Amino acid sequence: xxxxxxxxxxxxxxxxxxxxxxxxxxxxxxxxxxxxxxxxxxxxxxxxxxxxxxxxxxxxxxxxxxxxxxxxxxxxxxxxxxxxxxxxxxxxxxxxxxxxxxxxxxxxxxxxxxxxxxxxxxxxxxxxxxxxxxxxxxxxxxxxxxxxxxxxxxxxxxxxxxxxxxxxxxxxxxxxxxxxxxxxxxxxxxxxxxxxxxxxxxxxxxxxxxxxxxxxxxxxxxxxxxxxxxxxxxxxxxxxxxxxxxxxxxxxxxxxxxxxxxxxxxxxxxxxxxxxxxxxxxxxxxxxxxxxxxxxxxxxxxxxxxxxxxxxxxxxxxxxxxxxxxxxxxxxxxxxxxxxxxxxxxxxxxxxxxxxxxxxxxxxxxxxxxxxxxxxxxxxxxx
Length: 383
Ligand SMILES: [Zn+2]
Known about the structure:
By secondary structure, the protein is α/β, with parallel strands linked by helices. Helices cover about 30% and strands about 25% of the residues.
């Protein structure tokens, strides 16, 4: 197995950009397959059981298993996504993996190829050393975390079940045990197109949408005023994108908005949608048809109430290596909640700082890689 910084550089040099619904990105950087092939090679080199789970064209999950000699007291999963966000406007070479001042730069360096390299290194050491009394370990590399969570949904649908799961995201070697869920909805108002010199002959879909958006702003205020989660804060709703119209001299026949709704533990995407539909149905100004639907699978909320034992065990491993840790919630969604929803207690842990994720000069502090791998090894080995 390559030393950790080299392993990370190999991963960063292989683009695995998630198009996130866009169609304007070059094909030679899209999808996870280059990273998948590299990781598969590394895992096959260890001689362990590796299989692919096809999720979409050029997008396979990778699942490797390590079974210790003798009875395993525990089964754990290390889970990490392979995809990155796009590279527009980056000011460092996105796939250059340049190292300077103890940092490695590039798209995915922090989110989450550092975590991918660390999990592979810890897993390889378990396979090599076969520590007595160690856990059985499933190492899963999933696709499409940055957009619609298809990979982790397929992983859990395939029946992978362990006692605990650690999901890689940058946490500065701390434990994240809770986050909100996220669901995206699309709302479309229809109109009737005509020449803009006689707008009275048509129906302006953008004017209709303007009224919808006003109501959504009011609804977002109502959500925010509901009792918040003591740790995660309030429910939120935000309109993030408006698309509609073809030219200034055409009355638009359709307008579309993308809505982002953050869910608290106990809420579901379906119930949230039903609540919004009921609200809009009761607004007298919206006397025209429109459609409202979920755009793609939701990321459920991650509640903290089932991961206490896992937090204690992982926390002990962290303390034994770096001396301290925090346990805290985050505002963003991760694969951990889909794992937890399937009944496997899950937390988020990894090297790097989320402040550097998705940035124009994304980097990770290389000094966190070795401690992170040591922590995961001790966690699984029961040391
Ligand atoms: Zn990530």
